Amino acid sequence: MALLAWNVRGLGNKDTVCALKNICFKYKNDIVFLSETKQKKKVSRKNQNENENGQCFLCEPDGITGGLALWWNQGINLSVLHFDKNFIDTIISINGEEEWFGTFIYAPPYDEEKQDFWKRLDTLRDDINAKWCIMDDTNIVASPNEKYGGAPFDHNNAKWYHEFLERAYLMEIQSKGGTYTWSNHRSEEDEICEKLDRVLSSPEWNFLFSRAIAIIDVAIAFDHAPIVLLTNGVMKKVKRDFKFESRWILEEECSHLVEEEWTHTEERNQRGTFRVKLRRTKVKLEKWS
């Protein structure tokens, strides 16, 4: 099962809709959770239909802020148990497998609301042995090494978060793909990067999905990175047509590799040399990636 959670900061942007379609195609997501949609139900349902997800549950924004959307495929047995402007709490199963609780969150960004949010979340489960997984935007920097630039690390916010983890017996699932999930995309001296989005789970959930992994995908030009939970581990590699991945341009090594292969001389005619350069650069990029 593949679950996508993403703070999209508005679904009205064509670039956002295009990026959402691409990531849904890439991971074949069974469940999609979007926060800060800033869209009424009619618009959210239109996007859901375009992405071919079978069913949906929507929480409208408060004015022009907030808004949650949860979409899932027909083969997923999902029921919504609780919800408010900051979370959608569900019970999930697929193909007759064991049921587990999935809570998709958008924690409040304001300090005065954060402590109350974690306390509300704590009341969702009475059984500490429940199979429970929580995804998306915690709006919490949990430790100093999850932050670069900006104001100093806030110990009080982290304290409320860690106290919740202790009470609920939850831990963070290992993630791959990047250190930070949010950036202000400013110049070097003003740049701020933080890890705000994550996946939490109980020991019982981990036992059920022992190979689960979270992937932080690249979000060029977006504040938040999408996070994908693969319950059965990394997807099998399949043979596909070569495509230049946009995230490669963030790596300096990629630029050097392309330049090295492209400037290599060939004693051929111009057309033949061009084809050779393309083919050789493609092979190098595939191996490097």
Automatic annotation (TrEMBL):
Residues 5-210 form the Endonuclease/exonuclease/phosphatase domain. It comes from the Eukaryota. InterPro entries: Endo/exonu/phosph_ase_sf, Endo/exonuclease/phosphatase. PANTHER family: BNAC02G09200D PROTEIN, OS06G0205337 PROTEIN. This is Endonuclease/exonuclease/phosphatase domain-containing protein. The lineage of its organism: Eukaryota, Viridiplantae, Streptophyta, Embryophyta, Tracheophyta.
